[in-house]
Specification:
This protein is α/β, with parallel strands linked by helices. Helices cover about 35% and strands about 25% of the residues. The chain has nine helices and eleven strands. Helix 3 packs across helix 4. The protein starts with a strand and ends in a 14-residue tail after the last helix.
């Protein structure tokens, strides 16, 4: 099997707290993989290790055929990342930021300018003009971060809650772009608490709970005729809990 991502015993400790506990993630090339879990389950920590932002306490990460710890630059040139925390150069304008990112990936200047214009138009922020990134709304910053992750046409795209704060029109455009990327052979790895988004976008799903990968497989295998929400709740160990009650309702 040709994997875009494969982990072996991936573990991360923060002092006495084990955030990720020996997980084995396997993501086939050319698929869209939804990585699900409750808050605090270890999703963002896992993405940070898969993208080289955090070093694992133990275990190994293989990305696009490379051991990440041995070949970080070779991997990072070929991936795009929309992280949980948005880190932008806020004293630049949106078009300046995207052109800068494109040039960092060694795109020719004409290509960088063309793609910058196309991405800003697609995401509905082409009219930002002379506006500094520091004056963008949260949703606009999220769109700009996504544009920066797409501008070099990555083989593998990591998305941590990519639709948070993004309006429905831009969300539809983004889903269309992601579908086209997968159709061309790229791989998507995303986390989202909006299960409807996962059902529309993803072909495969992994469910993590308390740092452990409890389910992994195709969307059809995971849902097994039920809704993804029911499968997720059961895998997270919440299926037998009584419904929440309030004394005044």
């Amino acid at each position: 099997m040709d994997y875009a991502i494969e982990t072996l015993g991936l573990t991360k400790d923060f002092g006495a707290n084990r955030a990720v506990d020996g997980i084995r993630v396997m993501v086939e090339r050319g698929t869209s993989y939804g990585f699900l879990g409750p808050n605090g389950a270890g999703k963002s920590t896992t993405i940070k290790m898969l993208t080289g932002i955090l070093a694992p306490s133990s275990g190994e990460v293989r990305v696009l055929g490379h051991v990440l710890a041995r070949s970080p630059l070779q991997v990072k040139r070929r991936i795009g990342v929309v992280p949980e925390e948005l880190c932008l150069f806020e004293n630049l304008r949106g078009n300046e930021y995207l052109t800068f990112v494109a040039r960092m990936y060694r795109l020719p200047r004409e290509t960088a300018l063309r793609r910058t214009g196309e991405l800003l138009e697609l995401l509905g922020i082409a009219d930002t003009g002379k506006t500094l990134v520091s004056e963008f709304s949260h949703g606009m910053k999220k769109k700009l971060t996504l544009a920066a992750a797409l501008i070099h046409d990555p083989e593998l795209l990591f998305l941590d809650e990519p639709f948070e704060g993004v309006d429905p029109i831009a969300s539809r455009s983004i889903r269309h772009v992601l579908d086209r990327m997968v159709a061309r052979g790229a791989t998507i790895f995303l986390t989202s608490h909006v299960l409807e988004v996962v059902e529309k976008l993803c072909t495969h799903v992994g469910i993590v709970n308390k740092g452990k990968l409890v389910r992994q497989g195709s969307l059809q295998e995971i849902s097994a005729g039920a809704s993804l929400e029911d499968a997720f709740v059961a895998a997270a160990g919440q299926g037998n809990l009584p419904p929440a009650e309030l004394s005044w309702l």
